[in-house]
Specification:
The structure holds 2 protein chains of 2 kinds. Chain A is α+β, with helices and mostly antiparallel strands. Helix content of chain A is 32%, strand content 30%. Classes of the chains: A alpha+beta, B mainly beta.
């Protein structure tokens, strides 16, 4: 019998609400500020579509060099036009305060050369105000971008102060309402990992796939002479420091038409490392002659260096997001429709290499005959795993080591150097693990076969083993069936899994060389054994554990998962 | 009446069942407002060190709910998972009566295993 009543929900304290509100308030105000700024700019852009068209003549046109390596060159144009019978002059190119890209500056300088007649648009309310270019109306969509920040901030503040109901508190919900495996829960998880996957794919395309496709396409481009009209290393500064990019503008002629481009290679973005870029700029100084490659189908598309370089491989880093997104989606949706209740029902299907036809047991469970078991991880997979882990860890740590080592050794550098020591030690440990796994690759390989693929509580089955390789080095062999609990939990941002063995049934424990090479033994599964169970965070795992002792060498430590099924219902 | 009063009862107050058995329950409720739905859910959940896992196996909806009433529901219990208790994890079977909105609920916990008692995992 059970009688129940409502329970009250916990609420956040006033201090927490204030801190939360400040956090979300920054989002909200920043978003609002950007929104106002962008709306004003967009309104200016849209207003030019109501301005009056007129003919203008370019009076002067020049390119001012960039103020410093962080800024682009500036195009200064002055033109005259007639409005309502009055001659006017203006230097407006387009509305808005955004600086033109270097290549745009040089292209526009040619387009707005002195003496040229070009169209302009005049503000009828203020005839001395005019522009030579109108931005596309499509730029208006940018007003939606800051709304994300406004929404996050606004919803966050609302969530801090709204009146909470008992349904908001997970602990106060009925337990059956906390089924994380419900369809909406899966959809939310799917959307979360889907965003990761899409963002990863998009950035990988931009940084790696797109450049690779262009590199291949450019092999058939036409080689033409060109002149360097601007050459510098551009500095991009942010809170993480400076990054650099090659900013070279060149001019070339194709089919009697002159073009300007600043595409040095197909890799996009800016990276650390000044020296390499400076060498490029020194090799291609202002006024020098070189060759570029142009797309004959679109002569405006040109490149100076059409081959790949080391920067291209940085474009593979976003694959981490692809892996997280794809892995998360597979994890979220892999469960089959038949697996009701959010756990995996043990199936009478062990990893099999035999082709024996299924036959029913007296218990009614399908038996697939003798099964050769597969280890949970092959030696090669373990080797690959530690290599990847070592590369990943040491790759990241080496960036910091390089950054600290390359700079001047001041107090901060010493502090960073000391701070990095534990990370370096972990990296060295991982390198050691690679050698350990490399040695383990030469260990004898166990091959385990069970007489029946379905393990039921109370059953007795035959377990056969055979070791291939240099078994003369083995000093002892133990095979046991282990049952254990595995509980995964989160503490802060860390996820940990605790394991507790509840059953250990020894099958073999021998030092006899003949018995170690091959043999068989009976395995009795206890009648009251818990069946295998696998939910998202909690598991009951059964596995045959093989331990081979090898002096002065990595031991054989393999695990072969098996599934213990629940007893079928007697009809 | 300000609180929801909900009740779940089994014949002879049984709390231990075997896989495949039929679990019959009497459902009673007395609510301050007419609920949008009244559901009886058969499910298991975990307790212990690991993050809670919950699996709803079956749901029965009681139609045309009045402010107060009584109904009978039955579930055929599945083969697994068994109720067990280990050092890290316990698995508990339960039936919950949930009135929405408001998530007023009551829970009846029972044991599901071939032996009639929960399996104790120990070395």
């Amino acid at each position: 019998m059970a009688i129940g009543f409502n329970s009250s929900a916990k609420t956040l304290g006033i201090g927490g609400r204030i801190i939360g509100s400040l956090f979300f308030g920054v989002f909200f105000l920043m978003g609002l500020g950007f929104e106002v700024m962008i709306i004003r700019q967009t309104a200016g852009t849209f207003a030019t579509y109501n301005w009056t068209p007129a003919d203008a003549i370019i009076l002067s046109s020049k390119i001012s060099p960039p103020r410093d390596s962080e800024h682009n060159p500036v195009l200064q144009v002055r033109y005259a036009y007639t409005f309502d019978g009055m001659r006017q002059e203006s230097d407006g190119i387009e509305t808005g305060s955004g600086a033109l890209e270097t290549s745009d500056v040089y292209q526009l300088a040619e387009h707005y050369a002195v003496g040229k007649n070009v169209p302009c648009w005049v503000n009828p309310a203020k005839p001395d105000e005019a522009v030579l270019r109108r931005k596309s109306r499509a730029t208006g969509f940018i007003v939606l971008f800051p709304l994300i920040f406004v929404a996050v901030g606004g919803i966050g503040i609302w969530a801090m102060w709204r009146r909470r109901t008992p349904q908001d508190d997970d602990a106060a919900k009925p337990i059956s309402s906390r089924d994380k495996d419900s369809k909406p829960g899966r959809l939310i998880m799917g959307a979360f990992f889907g965003v990761f996957l899409l963002a990863g794919c998009g950035v990988t395309y931009v940084l790696f796939v797109g450049p690779v496709l262009q590199i291949f396409a450019a092999r058939n481009w036409t080689q033409v002479p060109c002149e360097i009209v601007s050459s510098r290393v551009k500095t991009n500064s942010d809170s993480d420091g400076n990054t650099y990019s090659v900013d070279i503008v060149y001019r070339y002629t194709y089919h009697d038409r002159t073009y300007t481009s600043n595409q040095y290679h197909f890799m996009t973005g800016s990276s650390s490392g000044y020296r390499g870029k400076a060498e490029v700029v020194n090799r291609l100084p202002l006024g020098s002659q070189t060759t570029c490659y142009i797309d004959p189908a679109n002569p405006a598309d040109a490149v100076l260096e059409r081959d790949a370089n080391g920067e291209l491989w940085f474009g593979l880093i976003p694959l981490v997001f692809v892996a997280v997104g794809a892995g998360g989606l597979i994890f979220t949706f892999r469960k089959k429709a038949g697996d009701s209740g959010g756990f995996i029902v043990p199936k009478p299907a062990l990893a099999t290499t035999g082709g024996t036809a299924s036959r029913p047991l007296a218990s009614g469970v399908a038996d697939q005959g003798p099964q050769t078991l597969k280890p949970s991880a092959s030696p090669k997979a373990k080797m690959l795993g530690v290599i990847l882990a070592a590369l990943f860890w040491n790759g990241i740590v080496s960036i910091f080591i390089f950054s600290v080592g390359a700079g001047k050794w001041d107090g901060f550098s010493w502090f960073m150097g000391l701070f990095l020591i534990p990370f370096i030690l972990v990296g060295l440990g991982l390198i050691g693990a690679v050698f350990y796994q490399l040695m383990a690759l030469f260990n004898p390989r166990p091959r385990l076969t069970v007489s029946r693929g379905v393990l039921l509580p109370g059953d007795t089955i035959d377990v056969s083993w055979e070791l291939q390789g240099r078994i003369d080095r083995l000093q002892g062999l133990q095979i046991a069936l282990e049952g254990r609990e595995e509980a995964t939990y989160r503490r802060g941002t860390n996820t940990s899994t605790d394991k507790e063995v509840f059953a250990l049934i020894q099958i073999v424990d021998t030092a006899d060389p003949v018995a170690m090479h091959s043999g068989s033994a009976k395995l009795h599964v206890p009648p009251g054994a818990m069946h295998s169970f696998k939910a998202a965070n909690n598991k009951i795992v059964w596995a045959l554990k093989v331990h081979g002792e090898i002096p002065r060498w990595p031991d054989i430590k393999d695990e072969y998962p098996v599934e213990v099924s629940p007893k079928p219902i007697a009809r | 009446m300000t609180n929801a009063e909900l009740g779940l009862f089994t014949a002879q107050d049984r709390t231990a069942f075997k896989p495949g058995e039929v679990l019959e329950l009497s459902v009673l409720w007395a609510l301050p407002t007419k609920p949008a739905s009244l559901e009886v859910r058969l499910f298991w959940f975990t307790r212990g060190k690991g993050t809670e896992d919950v699996g709803v196996v079956a749901t029965e909806t009681i139609p045309a709910v009045a402010l107060a009433g009584e109904a009978k529901v039955q579930f055929t219990l599945p083969v697994a998972p068994y109720s067990f208790s280990g050092r890290l994890i316990s698995l508990v079977w339960a039936v919950e009566l949930v009135a929405e909105p408001g998530s007023s609920a009551t829970r009846f916990e029972f044991t599901l295993s071939p032996t009639g008692s929960e399996l104790v995992l120990k070395t």
